Amino acid sequence: LSLQGLWWFHDVCWNIISHCVLFVCFQIGLDFTPWCAPSHQDREDQMSVFIKQLSVAKELQLPVNVHSRSAAKVTIETMREQGISRALLHNFAGKPSVALEGVKAGFFFSFPPAVCRNHQRDKLIKQIPLEHICLETDSPALGLDKLERNEPCNIALCCRHIADVKGLSTQTVQIVTAQNALRLFPKVQTHMQHISL
Ligand SMILES: [Zn+2]
Fold first, then answer.
1. May I ask which residue range the UniProt record assigns to the signal sequence (predicted)?
2. Where do the structural domains in the chain lie, given as residue ranges?
């Protein structure tokens, strides 16, 4: 979203909210990988947009679903500075020490089936308390096999991987992560009466 488009975005948000139910403001965030933000100015522009998007989420009283790549620390610091209390950092791949700063701020972290491909994120998964973890697919990308379309049913794969890494049963991970998701997105529960945990 460009800086010029922000006020348009703001107006559209208010129009949408008056007509339907929003559960979350997504997917916003910072991507500082060199091909995405080659210059200092690019990173500054992303930061200005991100701060404005966070303020829209606060105004709408919605949790945020946040993408961060090569920008884990600055993403979490910015959200804390902006007073964000309800956030999901999806497909998080930052350092465990940075993730724990997010845990202290009450943020949640979700992991897609791609984490089963290798053990790169096991340390991170081990250190984040289960009470701060959610499951995601991020389909159609980030599946077990890069060449195959990732499907929502593959959520069971990340559940099993997190259970294995943490030495817990899959049922425990399933129940706690579902409870976490409902804590983070409480409006979902009010619109899905049949969910009982
Ligand atoms: Zn993303």
1. none
2. 3-196
pLDDT per residue as tens digits for the range 9-28: 667 766 666 666 677 777 89
Cα(121) to centroid of ligand 1, in Å?
Answer: 16
Separation of alpha carbons 79 and 86, rounded Å:
10
Compute the distance from residue 173 Cα to the ligand 1 centre, in Å. 23
3-196 is classed in which CATH architecture?
Alpha-Beta Barrel (3.20)
Containing 122, the helix (H) or strand (E) segment is helix 122-127
pTM: 0.87
Q: Is 19 annotated as a binding residue?
A: no
Please count the other Cβ atoms lying within 10 Å of the Cβ belonging to residue 55.
Answer: 15
Rounded to the nearest angstrom, the distance between the alpha carbon of 26 and the centre of ligand 1 is 10
pLDDT tens-digit series, residues 107-142? 999 999 999 988 999 999 999 999 999 999 998 988
Q: Taking CA 184 as the corner, what is the angle to CA 173 and CA 30, rounded to the nearest 5 degrees?
A: 100
- Tell me whether residue 90 is annotated as binding: yes
| Residue 161 in marked binding region | no
